[in-house]
Specification:
With about 450 residues, this protein is α/β, with parallel strands linked by helices. About 50% of the residues lie in helices and about 10% in strands. The strands form 2 sheets. Strands 1, 4, 5, 6, 7 and 8 form a 6-stranded mixed β-sheet that branches. A two-stranded antiparallel ribbon has the order 2-3. It has 3 domains: about 100 residues, no CATH class; about 180 residues, 2-Layer Sandwich (Nucleotidyltransferase, domain 5); about 120 residues. Helix 1 runs antiparallel to helix 3 and helix 9 runs antiparallel to helix 10.
Amino acid sequence: MPKKFRTVDRSTPHLMPAQVEDWLPEDDLARFVVDIVDRLDTSAIEDSYDARGSKAYHPKLMAALLIYSYATGTFSSRKIEKRTYDSIPHRFICANQHPDHDTICRFRHRFWDEVTGLFLQVLLIAGEMGMVEVGNVAVDGTKMNANASKHKALSWDRANQLEEQLTEEIEELLETAEAIDEEEDEDGPGGLDIPEEIQRREKRLEGIREAKERIEKRARERHEEEVNHYEEKMDRRAEYEEEHGRKKPGREPEEPEYEGPEDKAQANLTDPESRIMLTSENGWQQAYNLQAAVDMDSHLILTGHVSQSPNDKQELEPALEQIDELPERLGEADRLAADNGYLSAGNVAACEEQGITPYIATGRKKHNPSWKERLTGPEEDPPEDEEGIEAMAYRLETLEGKAFYGRRKGTVEPIFGAIKEVMGLRRLLVRGLKKVEAEWTLVQLAWNVRRMFALQG
């Protein structure tokens, strides 16, 4: 019996729908993005244009194009331009127009602040649609590879060696040039272009000296922090001795001395503001620490910032400040969950001062606990005589505490996973802390729109 297959005919003309709008399904993400962007106030961008020159693409079109592209994993300006030709959703958003990659790149960098300012507007729209009401919050961070190689990092010791080597080579080249002038020879040995060689070394020497200045600046800042920490300890000792009328037991802290940068202290020549960090995927990498505070009920990102520190301990207070600045109509944070990396007495106190009940892990929990461990624990609140970390540790062992903290892994961590695996952001496109902060906010904005699309069903 002969097989039956559909005819493959690539030469017969096909009549496409007359309107680009008809090419797209009614429930497509691109339609939702356009609807959301049409509700945003983009007057700050529009007012920056004047009447001179050729007509510009409308800011709402450009904003929708960026948000949709980021939400679907297209980050490069050249790739976004290509999508306006070969992707129906992109053609729909651009109304069959094709902004070139230069236009897209200029718009993104010229209006970083304005575009990222749309983040809060989108969050407020989510609140109006009943998708988010701040109450339970989870905070976490993830390391994201910088747009720089770790092999372009220069240590203090190596920088000193190279500075000495290049200085000697420049002196040798200058001596060679003087000898050539005396002999009235036009070329250097072996046809060497001495001025070009000197210029190349001087340029590299300038970069090395700038890197040394950055390393030394960080060393001084670290020393200042150690001095402040020392002074705080001495103040506490003085208070204890004044209160008890005797010397506080234990060894007295030693005042830190500035000894200059360590030999292994590094600065990256490509992106000086990035740092070497230990990542869970690829070991030590040149990276930034991206932070996010997430609503545990809707999985929408409420706030986020970028840190140069590989440690999360100093990142909770900036997150709390941003949460406190959210508009009242979005609600107020009531409980906060964070992993052991955020544990400190100061962070617990900062949460309580803001009226937020902290649930910060006091240690690493073993995987796959038995059902008895999961379903047993005290039901009442901590005793009145316990406070701070002790009270929180008790609270985490209650049934309510275990249930609440257990939700953390199902909220903020999957969002980071989706941004990296589904949206495809594995490496930052820009360099410098300020630009990275803007790009991270745009990524969070794209995630929120994508999540709102899923929530509205």
